[in-house]
Design brief:
Length: 196
Amino acid sequence: MGNPNDSSYTERLLATESGWKAWLGVQAPYRWHIRRRASGRVLDVGCGIGRNLTHLGGNGVGVDTNPASVEVARRRGLRAYTPEDFASSPDAAPAAYDTLLFSHVLEHMTGDEASGLVGQYLPHLRPGGRVIIIVPQEVGFRSDPTHIEFVSETDLLEIARAHDLEVERIYSFPFPRWAGRVFRHNETVGLLRLPS
């Protein structure tokens, strides 16, 4: 099945940034998208090797359970922690972030664990701040053996309801929803907001 906390998973993430994908700039639409959605100071939960933090110009802090990935992010000049290190750091202040980002994280756990993870980090979000959840659609979900549970639009609504978050919008990116059955990199995006 694989383990997203192994160093081999970090190596796999690094491999996606080289070769033809880097040459073609396939991350460009995703970089553009995340810059439009994540505003202010961002807490990137499940930051991996720091790709989204890099897209955001380093304007935030990352947390990841994979120590090898955290080390890569730090070597890139980003602020990144394991959950234990984050909890005891000055960056773990309450209401210190404008955006909480969970990008390609929640599918690596059960639904209850996913909702619990969102709830665990909500105290760090300022009132009125945004929660962004990005998950793969069908083909993307099946492409990674470390994925545990598919996250649907209904699941995102349930997470919002469980934590009293307002739903701004749930949509498909970069292509319409039907593309998720054939295009590996189509995503479901949930924009939620903590009431002021």
